[in-house]
Prior knowledge:
Layout: E1 2-6, H1 11-22, E2 26-31, H2 38-48, E3 53-56, H3 62-71, E4 74-79, H4 86-91, H5 93-114, E5 118-124, H6 148-166, E6 171-177, E7 179-181, H7 200-208, E8 215-218, E9 230-231, E10 233-235, H8 236-250, E11 255-261, E12 267-268, H9 269-280, E13 286-289, E14 298-299, H10 304-310, H11 318-331
Parallel strand pairs: 1-2, 1-4, 2-3, 4-5, 5-6, 6-11, 7-10, 8-13, 9-14
Antiparallel strand pairs: 9-12
The structure holds nicotinamide-adenine-dinucleotide and uridine-diphosphate-N-acetylglucosamine (UD1).
Amino acid sequence: MALLITGGAGYIGSHTVVELLEAGQEVIVLDNLANSSRASLQRVAQITGREPQLIEGDVRDARLLDRLFAEHPVEAVVHFAGLKAVGESVRHPLDYYDNNVGGSLALCQAMARAGVRRLAFSSSATVYGAPADMPIPETCPIGIPTNPYGQSKRMVEDMLNDLVASDPRWSIALLRYFNPVGAHPSGLIGEDPDGIPNNLLPYITQVAVGRLERLAVFGDDYPTIDGTGVRDYIHVVDLARGHLAALGFLSTHPGIHAWNLGTGTGYSVLQIIEAFERASGRPVPYTIAPRRPGDVAQCWSDPAKAMRELGWRATLGLDRMMEDAWRWQSGNPAGYAEAD
Ligand code: NAD
Ligand code: UD1
């Protein structure tokens, strides 16, 4: 039996594929390479000694999905495929609803036709909106995301809840990621954003490697430890391992299950800069800029439910996140571009 990994050539997908292959699983990747390249899977092969099969195509393509499920004995699906740039989602909302909601709908319909009913979905802490109290447990009511990207995650969660309510044979995981950072310790795979990064860590590493001049710190007047925004950064390898734990649980527990995948600890932007400088030995010049619209002051998880039910918790600390992010960026200053 095999696992279908949609979006498996991307940042989190490629790290999860490594962990799955190393655990002896058969993996098929479906990716349209809209935000990735074959190079990541070639690097996965370098790390694991096994190259996963790549089917280049779109998760919205119903005919392709029917053929895929007919030709391969798929037992479960991990659904990473989607668009993830918050600002772009505000400018092009229909693309986000089409890809993220339409893609998830087409996938579930094809899974239903094929009788494959086990699914792990990449959700996000963004579905909680801006709760007043930290840390955030899964029992926190779903909030109102401030942008179409967040809305698309929330809508898919709603759709999956309705699906399980209608047919209890499904087993579905809503994996709510906090802030994934870092890279595989080999330095062979990592985050390779297209254009100027939106997120903090890739921006910092690109400043350190000389691709960007200086970081803008968005706001220093939040009610936090030093006035800058606080987030729950989680090593992408820990996050990838969370998917294996969730898949194991789903195989014996039908129903729908939400888990926070975070560390339970928040760090401020200035603490991240300091930790990165320590790990890399490089200075990160920065200026204080106005707050970014839509940002919350603080956001960190209560990860106890995942520990209790999955036996999973994050084990790689802040220093490892920074060291591994730097090993990837310094070894691949232009990301995968050099490998193409
Ligand atoms: P990524 O862009 O690196 O990976 C997504 C992959 O999906 C890419 O390889 C892309 O080519 C592919 N893809 C996009 N649309 C597709 C389609 N219609 N058909 C087939 N393939 C398609 O992003 P990532 O950071 O690895 O994120 C993976 C998932 O996790 C996404 O759903 C994202 O929304 C979610 N997520 C990410 C973060 C984060 O900070 N990175 C946080 C929370 C949730
Ligand atoms: C953002 C998205 C969130 C998405 C997540 C992962 C917003 C409002 N939220 O989360 O929906 O799930 O990315 O893709 O965009 N920062 C700077 N300077 C920078 C970049 C970031 O100071 O150049 C600060 C931010 O203000 C924030 C922290 O760094 O306090 C982390 O930002 P980022 O990495 O973009 O993640 P989130 O905002 O948490």
